[in-house]
Amino acid sequence: MPTTAVVELLATDLNHQGGVFCPSPKADMKLWSAHPKVYLDVARTGETRCPYCGTVYRLKAGESAGGHH
Questions:
Q1: Disulfide engineering: 65 pairs with which of 42, 43, 46, 50, CB 3.0-4.6 Å?
Q2: C-alpha–C-alpha distance, residues 24 and 15, integer Å
Q3: Is the pLDDT of residue 22 over 90?
């Protein structure tokens, strides 16, 4: 069973809505062999998990999503 990948993000890695898309080059994924593109809201809780592959995207310690809600 594969190990769940954890991708630590800077606040500047988030888009203007406070999220990221998975699959992501930051997770070292090959887009052509991955699951459908899905939007993940990171700003709301500081961490989220992709429902397709289980990759966890979280803000690095000390990072804040600032004005994102």
A1: 43
A2: 13
A3: yes
